[in-house]
Write a structure and sequence with these properties.
With 136 residues, this protein is of the alpha+beta class. It has three helices and five strands, in the order H-E-E-E-H-E-E-H. A five-stranded antiparallel beta sheet has the order 1-2-3-5-4. The chain binds adenosine monophosphate and zinc ion. Adenosine monophosphate binds next to loops. Zinc ion (ZN) is lined by residues 3, 6, 8-9, 48, 99.
Length: 136
């Protein structure tokens, strides 16, 4: 399953060159062209799924297994001080390429990056109401 107009379909399947650091039957892992920090890479499935909602459960599990392996390897090779996994779903959440991808972002004490959110505030009543709304 591919989308003719999708750049990550083309990269993942080798039609467009990329700085690939790992590849198997299901995934390609390549460097982000606008890295947040040295070594910023993307785990991208070769099949087209727009986001995590669409990604089959097994592939999601495999993506996380691969992320764990890659972050350990990259931490060793780059001597980074920490590591962030980022995964955006939908424009509102910051997604700009609509083919599922998982960001692997090595972090360094001196990288000056802020990949974070502004802490908000909610009353106990509001928190209780949210909990009641989404509890399963
Ligand atoms: P997101 O905002 O989560 O959808 O992330 C999309 C990411 O893809 C951004 O970090 C971009 O820098 C990156 N990106 C877009 N086009 C390319 C490309 N051709 N090669 C490598 N990375 C890309
Ligand atoms: Zn695609």
């Amino acid at each position: 399953m591919r989308d003719e107009n999708c750049i990550f379909c083309k990269i993942a399947n080798g039609e467009i060159p990329s700085r690939t650091i790992y590849e198997d039957e299901q995934f390609r892992v390549f460097l982000d062209l606008s890295p947040a920090a040295k070594g910023h890479a993307l785990i991208v499935p070769k099949e087209h799924y727009a986001n995590l909602y669409e990604l089959p459960e097994e592939l999601a599990a495999d993506a996380m297994r691969l992320a764990k392996k890659e972050m350990s390897l990259m931490t060793q090779k780059l001597s980074c001080d920490g590591f962030q996994l980022v995964q955006n779903n939908g424009e509102t959440a910051g997604q700009t390429v609509f083919h599922f991808h998982l960001h692997l972002i090595p972090r360094y004490r001196t990288d000056g990056q802020k990949i974070a959110w502004e802490p908000g505030s909610m009353s106990d009543e509001e928190l209780d109401a949210v909990k009641d709304q989404i509890i399963s």
